[in-house]
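Much of what follows relies on a compact textual record of a protein's fold. The record below shows the convention in full:
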Amino acid sequence: MDMSQFSNANGYIKGIDFDRSYLECETMLAQANTLIQEKRSQESVELLLKILQRNSQFGKAYNHLGYVYEIDYRDYTRAEEYYKKAMKYEPEYSAAYTHYARLLSSCKRFDELKAHLDIALTISTVSAETIYFEYGLMYEMQQNPEAAIDYYIKAAMTTLDTHKVTFYQGAINRCKTKLELKNSLSER
């Protein structure tokens, strides 16, 4: 059988887009991820910046930079800039939405967090369970245990993981205790 009808001059199968640069960026990203896990922040940042020199629109690298700047350097302004670029260039990459939500939560920027979670819930690749959990945390931090319970229930109903159901039940029970305290204080 003559295979020339199926391949081009480079030997690649016709109709399949082979992007070596993208694959190299993914390989470098995996290496950067290992460096992050090993707490080798400076080396990971250097490698992530090399990725962006190769492809300035590689959103996953921006997400990882945001994570390093948030967690290791506590530079929330720069982390936020990187997370926003990650979502701009890689709008289906779920980690950027989750990381940005946690940044907004830790900074107690609840109005922005609510708007962000509303958007994240519409992205098909972002876990609804995770977003419901983030809503629950947000409402619990705002001392609104009733709303938190509603979202922890939604998270529990969405998951198929028994351990997570147990975890969410613990969050619900914690909020019920807070609700009892809140009600006992209002009765005084």
